[in-house]
């Protein structure tokens, strides 16, 4: 008969898998019992199970190593998985996610221009059904450009890393990265710089957001130097060149880790909330793909093992249908200045190559002189807060376009034709093959794919059989989800399912968001700085705190422009009114605070403070009252 202690230990193990009370000595009791058993099948079985259990306690191979080579993100994304250092590295080939088995000779496929004109070309603007704003898709552009940059000479190669690592800000090589850095021992970047030249050709919200992340990096670097947690830094920096650069490397790379964690945090708060429709209910729930997960058999669900982006998802993330009306107008003006007055249907791939070369020549200039949307830098190289906040608030105010067949602006015609040609060169699977890979039921008719006869009839004429429907037009022209519980993005059904799988792969596969996300790597301050607060006014928003930190005079702490910027203000007013929470927010476009005028002459100070306080208004009075709940005492 087993002892009482043994029974107690077994009960505890059954009730608390993953959190066993080792003081109950269950393992020791089991080993003692095994040692007394005669040789035979029972003893062998218990031995195998015990060895298996103990072996599974630890990850194999080790998840990480102690070295600066592995401690920080490499500029090109390599060594994210130490066992496979090339996995996800910039300049390596795209992966293929799905085996295609349907013969699709290019000569038998319909003309790409005809596909665009029949299935994709926007007839008129339709606002996003959930009220998602242009801000959401400006941020989505940063996520997409972090993961995909097809080499112009070799379309099989991805010139950026396969991680959500803010490479549009930091670049994909050490050479590019050094152009962005001051290299003065502070770990800071030059003011308001970024690496991604492609964004100069796109609507300005994405560039404006990158500037805010640059400012956030410099704020983080400054704090790391001030706090000097491990007493490793000198302030001011050392005069010895090597010591100064060693200090600069450490501060810069830790600041990058923290800044990237802010970026990933926004992906899984504001961005995911808009995708799942959580924002409209101010619901603070969020998925957690980062934590350790153990199965019932004690095996660990993989994390931090790396990632490689695939050609299928390169096609899936082309969301031109969501362009807002002002962004389309901006693109039309940009195309006119780049291609003359050439109609969209006459712009050729060679025309695009020429423009790309001009853009490349422009981007070779000092990044400190780059500009966008006609903005001007001041003597310190900074853009005006007024200009940046205007771009950001305009993007929040303007509704994005709806995902839909015949929703892509005509100005994107040549880009779409190039995409179809690229997909054919890659030899990607069909839409139905992609659906099968996700565990989704394949379509049996075109009408099932999109019940609108204006779409399925021409699609059937183009492809004849639904099993031959190409992946890209199949994704873009598929019937879309209506808004509802769990549905806020409202793309085609296949896209809606696939992006969740990819989001988990991108983040759970990243070592720096999983096994190396710790105070020892990020520092204690840095680790806490990028934590989410589910109780904040944005239901856990992490974009709101970024706006408050980088544009404090323009974003109030109670505005929907601050806390729910990925939905339009009028939609959020309706949502918050329904929830009975509208009284806690303002919905008007924020007005910047008055410019602070420093007074450094004694007569002026006496004049202002000598009017019984009537000439002086405290800049912290409102916030102090909130902290002290209208009580307490503040000395000025």
Total beta strand runs? 2
Indicate the CATH architecture of the largest domain: Orthogonal Bundle
Q: Could you describe the largest sheet, including whether it forms a barrel?
A: 2 strands, antiparallel
CATH class of the largest domain: Mainly Alpha
CATH superfamily of the largest domain: Haem peroxidase domain superfamily, animal type
H/E element order? HHHHEHHEHHHHHHHHHHHHHHHHHHHHH
Structure notes:
This protein is an all-alpha fold and 636 residues long. It folds into 3 domains: 4-55, no CATH class; 68-511, Myeloperoxidase, subunit C (Orthogonal Bundle); 596-636, no CATH class. Helix content is 45%, strand content 1%. The protein has a two-stranded antiparallel sheet with strand order 1-2. Helix 5 crosses helix 15 (413-426), helix 9 packs across helix 10 and helix 9 packs across helix 23 (543-550). The mean pLDDT is 91.
Quick tags:
636 residues; Myeloperoxidase, subunit C; 27 helices; dioxygenase; peroxidase activity; Haem_peroxidase_sf_animal; Oxylipin_biosynth_metab; heme binding
């Amino acid at each position: 008969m087993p002892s009482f202690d043994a029974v107690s230990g077994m009960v505890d193990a059954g009730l608390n898998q993953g959190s066993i009370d080792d003081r109950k000595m269950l393992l020791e009791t089991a080993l003692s019992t095994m040692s007394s058993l005669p040789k035979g099948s029972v003893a062998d079985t218990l031995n195998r199970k015990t060895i298996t259990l103990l072996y599974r306690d630890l990850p194999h191979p080790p998840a990480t190593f102690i070295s600066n080579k592995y401690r920080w993100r490499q500029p090109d994304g390599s060594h994210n998985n130490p066992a496979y250092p090339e996995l996800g590295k910039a300049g390596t080939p795209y992966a293929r996610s799905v085996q295609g088995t349907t013969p699709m000779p290019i000569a038998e496929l319909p003309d790409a221009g005809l596909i665009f004109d029949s299935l994709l070309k926007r007839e008129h603007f339709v606002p996003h059904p959930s009220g998602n704003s242009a801000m959401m898709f400006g941020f989505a552009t940063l996520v997409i450009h972090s993961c995909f940059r097809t080499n112009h000479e070799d379309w099989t190669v991805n010139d950026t890393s396969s991680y959500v690592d803010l490479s549009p800000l930091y670049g994909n090589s050490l050479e590019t990265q050094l152009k962005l850095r001051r290299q003065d021992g502070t770990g800071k970047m030059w003011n308001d710089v970024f690496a991604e030249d492609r964004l100069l050709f796109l609507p300005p919200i994405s560039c404006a957001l990158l500037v805010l992340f640059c400012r956030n990096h410099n704020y983080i670097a400054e704090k790391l130097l001030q706090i000097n947690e491990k007493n490793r830094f000198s302030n001011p920096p050392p005069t010895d060149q090597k010591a100064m650069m060693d200090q600069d490397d450490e501060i810069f790379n830790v600041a990058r880790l923290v800044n990237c964690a802010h970026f990933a945090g926004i992906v899984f708060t504001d961005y995911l909330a808009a995708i799942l429709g959580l924002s409209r209910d101010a619901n603070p729930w969020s998925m957690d793909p980062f934590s350790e997960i153990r199965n019932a058999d004690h095996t660990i669900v993989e994390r931090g093992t790396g990632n490689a982006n695939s050609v299928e998802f390169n096609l899936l993330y082309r969301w031109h249908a969501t362009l807002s009306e002002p962004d389309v107008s901006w693109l039309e003006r940009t195309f006119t200045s780049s291609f003359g007055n050439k109609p969209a249907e006459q712009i050729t791939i060679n025309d695009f190559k020429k423009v790309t070369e001009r853009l490349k020549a422009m981007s070779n200039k000092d990044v400190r002189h780059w500009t966008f949307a006609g903005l001007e830098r001041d003597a310190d190289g900074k853009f005006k807060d007024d200009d940046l906040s205007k771009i950001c608030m305009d993007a929040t105010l303007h509704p994005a376009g709806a995902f839909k067949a015949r929703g892509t602006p005509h100005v994107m015609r040549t880009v779409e034709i190039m995409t179809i040609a690229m997909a054919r060169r890659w030899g990607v699977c069909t839409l139905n093959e992609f659906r099968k890979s996700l565990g989704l039921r394949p379509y049996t008719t075109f009408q099932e794919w999109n019940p609108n006869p204006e779409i399925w009839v021409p699609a059937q004429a183009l492809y004849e059989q639904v099993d031959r429907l190409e992946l890209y037009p199949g994704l873009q022209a598929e019937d879309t989800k209506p808004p509802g519980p769990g549905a806020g993005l409202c793309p085609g059904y296949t896209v809606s399912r696939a992006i969740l799988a990819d989001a988990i792969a991108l983040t759970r596969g990243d070592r720096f968001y999983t096994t190396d996300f710790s105070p020892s790597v990020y520092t204690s301050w840095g680790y806490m700085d990028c934590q989410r607060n589910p109780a904040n006014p944005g239901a856990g928003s992490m974009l709101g705190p970024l706006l408050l930190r980088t544009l404090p005079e323009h974003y109030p702490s109670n505005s929907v422009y601050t806390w729910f910027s990925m939905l339009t203000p009028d939609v959020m007013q309706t949502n918050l009114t329904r929830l009975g929470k509208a009284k806690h927010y303002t919905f008007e476009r924020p007005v910047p605070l008055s410019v602070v005028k420093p007074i450094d002459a004694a007569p002026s100070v006496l004049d202002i403070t000598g009017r019984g306080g009537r000439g002086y208004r405290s800049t912290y009075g409102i916030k102090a009252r909130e902290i002290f709940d209208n009580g307490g005492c503040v000395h000025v």
